[in-house]
Write a structure and sequence with these properties.
With about 260 residues, the protein is an alpha/beta fold. The chain has two domains: about 140 residues, D-Maltodextrin-Binding Protein, domain 2, CATH 3.40.190; about 100 residues, Periplasmic binding protein-like II (D-Maltodextrin-Binding Protein, domain 2, 3-Layer(aba) Sandwich), CATH 3.40.190. It is built from eleven helices and eleven strands. A six-stranded mixed β-sheet has the order 2-1-3-10-4-11. Strands 7-6-8-5-9 form a five-stranded mixed β-sheet, with helices on both faces. The longest helix is centred in the N-terminal third of the chain and has 17 residues.
């Protein structure tokens, strides 16, 4: 089984995504941002600060980077795309769907294992660790390991550690990382793989273990203006996100702010 029997809590985020696109269409002057679901807390705060300082209103649609990239490919209106990995930004760039000169590596993150708050679970994540036993008959929540960045990072780490095959059949797949987090938040799974920033955003989970950085590709969030963006305010918000005024919002949520260009 792949977790399809579990409640489709990701629908909440998808409804928000669809609403965001509709709202953007209704307010053509707004800056429309497509952003990885894990950015929600920090990006919401940054957008509010930008608008409060006199910037244009910002409409943000959150979902898995894979879904957002495909939406952009299908012609969905967006001014800015922020992916949770390089692959999906590369995907849209190869299809000439972004403005390459505006692309930059914005943020970094960590990958962690989470358990329900108060469970007291502590896992020494190392080669050959017995993750199956830690599940105690339950499932492992993670974003889709074949397409969603958080899931791809998680699968890569478990493969590097030599334990993927033992738990592959016990995965409760989710459509994005925040949906995977909710499985653990609601105690529908005993463990989940998410970003450190997701764990910090949810008081109902706790970190059970941290994946060593060398077990998966570096977690990098690139940002760029889309090729179709005609909104002059979008470039202003892009500069705001890359500048010192937005840094505290990202640092507060646990992101690493990067300075290097791609």
């Amino acid at each position: 089984m792949n977790g399809r029997g579990l409640p489709r809590i990701a629908t909440i985020l998808l409804v928000g995504f669809l609403f965001g696109v509709g709202a953007a269409a209704a307010h053509a002057a707004d800056i429309v941002v497509f952003a990885a679901a894990s950015l929600k807390n920090a990006l919401d705060d940054a957008a509010r600060a930008f608008t409060k300082q006199g910037g244009a209103p910002v409409e943000i649609s959150y979902a898995a980077s894979s879904q957002l990239a495909k939406q952009i490919e299908s012609g969905a209106p967006a001014d800015i795309f922020i992916s949770a990995d390089l692959d999906w930004m590369n995907y849209v760039q190869k299809r000439n769907l972004i403005q390459p000169a505006t692309r930059k590596n914005l943020l970094g993150n960590e990958l962690v294992m989470v358990a329900p708050k108060g469970s007291g679970v502590k896992i020494d994540i190392k080669p050959g660790f017995d993750l199956l036993a830690q599940l105690k008959g339950g499932r492992l929540a993670m974003a889709d390991p074949d397409s969603v960045p958080a899931g791809k990072y998680g699968k890569a780490a478990l493969e590097k550690l030599g334990v993927w095959q033992s738990v592959a059949g016990r995965v409760a797949g989710a459509e994005n990382v925040r949906a995977a987090l909710l499985y653990v938040d609601r105690q529908e799974t005993p463990l989940g793989i998410v970003y450190a920033t997701d764990a910090a955003s949810d008081p109902n989970v706790e970190i059970a273990g941290v994946f060593p950085a060398d077990t998966h590709p570096p977690i990098i969030y690139p940002i760029a203006l889309t090729a179709t963006s005609k909104n002059p305010d979008a470039a202003k918000f892009l500069a705001f996100l890359e500048g010192p005024q937005a840094k505290p919002f990202f640092v507060k949520q646990g992101f690493t702010v990067l300075d290097a260009a791609p």
